[in-house]
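Appendix B. Raw example, untouched.
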Amino acid sequence: MRDLNELRQKKTKLIAEARKFDDECTKDSRVMTGEEQEKYDRMVQDIRGLEQTITREENLQQMEMAEASQDESRQEPPVDESGKRVFASLGDQLRAVARAHTPGGQIDPRLTRAVSDISGMSELVDSEGGFLVEKDYIPGLLKGVYDNSQLARLCLKVPVGAGKNGIRFKYIDETSRADGSRAGGIRAYWEDEADAPTATKPKLGRGGLDLVDLKALLYATDDLLEDAEALEGWMKPQFFEEMAFKLQDAIVNGDGSGKPLGVLNSNALVSVTGETGQVTDTIVTENILKMWKSMAAPSRGKAVWLYNQELEDQLETLSYAIGTGGVLMKLFLSNPNGGGSIKGRPAIPIEQCPGPGDAGTIICMDPSQYLLIDKNGMRSESSIHVRFLYNETTFRFVYRVNGQPMKANKITPYKRTSASFYVSPYVTVAAI
């Protein structure tokens, strides 16, 4: 079997050489000599011959793939509990998706069309939304995505039912813990309090969250398409890592427009200020203590610290001032898993936190107070056109998901001295 990529590259090189020769021979409107014309004609003949070789090889490889598909179809495919024929593996299904989108290719009856309600789907295939990934493979794919995200797997995840595009909900609009404001306005009284009880009711807000598309593009060579097991083994790690990266980045930095709203863009975020005279691009012990002070008390037992890895050398040197004769008390304790702990809670390095000196370089948050909704399904599509020159097939996977912080506002504590002191499940340090 000839390497089509190598043949196409050779053709491109020959065309470039013919162009260069023609330009040199005809510059200043000069006409080619007889000898030059003969050489040029031989160069064109070589190109035409190579084109024929490429065409023959493409035809042979297509026939070989078709023959291999027929061999597979002669084997009894596995069936599910209802007796319906199913794919032997995810790689087997991906090959069927690729064949379905090949000109003249047939659609495997085991494939299920995914009707699209998303504009712009035609950029890869048609307006029908590709094919649904076999339901038996979805849990493994989504588990891989969440296992590869240190943060997403800790968030509150709610599935969206069939026929729904999101969720609508009412929430307690609480901005203060003062009497008359807790739970958005509910108030309790002791029987002998001087104030006469008055009727109260909670202040409710209305919220909603619609699913948006997270898409992953993968490019598979023709050689990979011939081996279902290799195709699946190659696809999964790339898919998991990229999907997990984008989802985690949105939870931290998302602007809420066509993607989840990140904690750094939430109205509920508390940003503590730096210390007087603090050197730029640094973190000091006082920053951490102020952040922990602003972490809402009910969230402390579930809170995690997220930080940019570039900050780690500074975290390692943070300590409490103890005077002479004391024992060094470190604030950050590293562990062999690659992170550490601060104030007894896990400290996790993630790529998505901004660098030292920028707001959000270190975050303390309660991930159970971050809501993720998703559709427990996935679409797969393919095209031979996007990467045709590279002899590759493009796969696109579409995962419907969205998210936002569950708290809409930072909270005024029940008792406080400073008018600027707030608490929240999401705390960071301002730019320094």
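End of appendix B.
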